[in-house]
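ok, trying the design again with the full structure, not the truncated one.
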């Protein structure tokens, strides 16, 4: 039996090439599909990826936009290669298998279920409610960085936490400005924060859970930046999942925009990491 005849060929690229491909595009310009099993996805996945186990793929084709390039990955590349061939055979024109799978992925990871952190972003919110939730998540992370600043002794690490908090403040500024624009409200920043915002850490995990998961060395700049990158990757994953769930096009667009900004945050943190390695 020549099994090759049953499959439509699909392109394969390395994990590093996949990272470069994704870096050159916004989060909304491609599909990223994880074809592993649910427990594998929960243990770790590439931020922003959508879980469709390979056994369910043919039944869930309507969840994938065929007009966009589609990257497919699994654990080591075997299942994703077959999945890419299946999609190509179903009429998807630009399907790319990520060789080596997540094992070869030398980048940021997110963890948890597809529902993690979506309590505040169910997809039923108005655009105003979505921006309030996003602002509260950013406020939670800013407060987290400031609280961590009090735990460390080295001046360099203190300055690093202050810089990370400043990045979150700038993101809050942009979200607040967009809230004023879409709502037509004249509410002051103080009223907005006191009446509408609920503090929470981004990504659906508590501060203590993040610390326990990553166990950083508080005297190591590299460890601190790594922790921050992990949290930002989780936030990118959360906003991407929330945008896919949203039933309001304006909502989805706002969430995609915030997700893209989280990716910029990751790039900024990557530059900080490069300066210290």
């Amino acid at each position: 039996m020549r099994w090759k005849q049953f499959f439509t060929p699909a392109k394969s690229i390395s994990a590093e090439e996949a990272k470069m491909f994704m870096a050159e595009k916004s989060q909304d310009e491609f599909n990223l599909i994880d074809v592993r099993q649910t427990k594998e996805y929960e243990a770790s996945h590439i931020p922003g990826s959508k879980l469709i186990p390979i056994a369910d793929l043919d039944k869930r084709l309507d969840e994938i936009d065929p007009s966009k390039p589609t990257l497919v990955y699994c654990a080591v590349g075997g299942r994703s290669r077959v999945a890419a061939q299946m999609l190509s055979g179903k009429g998807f024109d630009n399907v790319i298998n990520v060789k080596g799978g997540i094992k070869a992925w030398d980048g940021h990871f997110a963890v948890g279920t597809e529902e993690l952190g979506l309590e505040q972003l169910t997809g039923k919110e108005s655009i105003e409610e979505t921006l309030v939730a996003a602002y509260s998540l950013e406020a939670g992370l800013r407060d987290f960085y400031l609280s961590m600043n009090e735990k460390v002794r080295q001046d360099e690490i203190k300055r690093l936490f202050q810089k990370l908090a400043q990045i979150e403040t700038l993101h809050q500024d942009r979200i607040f400005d967009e809230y004023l624009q879409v709502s037509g409200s004249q509410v002051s920043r103080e009223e907005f924060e006191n009446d509408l915002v609920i503090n929470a850490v981004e990504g659906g995990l508590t501060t203590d859970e993040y610390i326990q998961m990553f166990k950083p060395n508080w005297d190591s700049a590299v460890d601190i930046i790594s922790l921050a990158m992990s949290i930002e990757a989780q936030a990118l994953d959360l906003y991407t999942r929330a945008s896919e769930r949203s039933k309001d096009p304006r909502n989805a667009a706002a969430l995609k925009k915030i997700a893209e900004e989280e990716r910029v945050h990751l790039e900024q943190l990557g530059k900080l990491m490069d300066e210290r390695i």
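Keeping the full-length input from now on. The CA atoms of residues 20 and 31 lie 15 Å apart.
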